[in-house]
Amino acid sequence: MPETNAYWRKTRWLTISLFVLWLLVTFVMNWYAREINEISFLGFPLGFYMGAQGILFIYLAIIWFYNRRMRTLDAEYGIKNE
Predict the structure, then answer these.
(1) Which residues are registered as beta bridge partners of 45?
(2) Could you say which of 37, 43, 68, 72 has the lowest number of CB atoms within 10 Å?
(3) Phi then psi for 40, rounded to 5 degrees?
(4) Which residue segment(s) compose the domain that 66 sits in?
């Protein structure tokens, strides 16, 4: 039973921390769009580039990291897919 509690504690911490990262990326990038647009990247304003492409890659990285970390936690605690 203590192992199960540790597993869920780590799972909750991971989920909450990645959700906070998602919130920061989503809302901070939009909140500071005018300031970010002053920076140019590949000929486009950085705010436009992040809105059109960059944020999507960050979301994919968050999903990839969550999947990788959960597989590690599952193997560590002997959780099998059903």
Answers:
(1) 40
(2) 43
(3) -105, 140
(4) 2-77
Contact between residue 34 and residue 47 where contact means Cβ atoms under 8 Å apart: yes
Residue 82 lies in a domain: no
Residues in CB range of 78: below 8 A, 6 or more apart: none
The two tokens of residue 26 are: 């989503």
Instruction: Please write the tens of the pLDDT for every residue from 50-64.
Output: 777 888 899 999 999
Q: What is the pTM of this model?
A: 0.80
Q: Give tens-digit pLDDT for 5-33.
A: 899 999 999 999 999 999 998 888 778 88
Pair of tokens at residue 77: 């605690």
Return the number of other C-beta atoms located less than 10 Å from residue 65's C-beta.
13
Residue type, 14: L
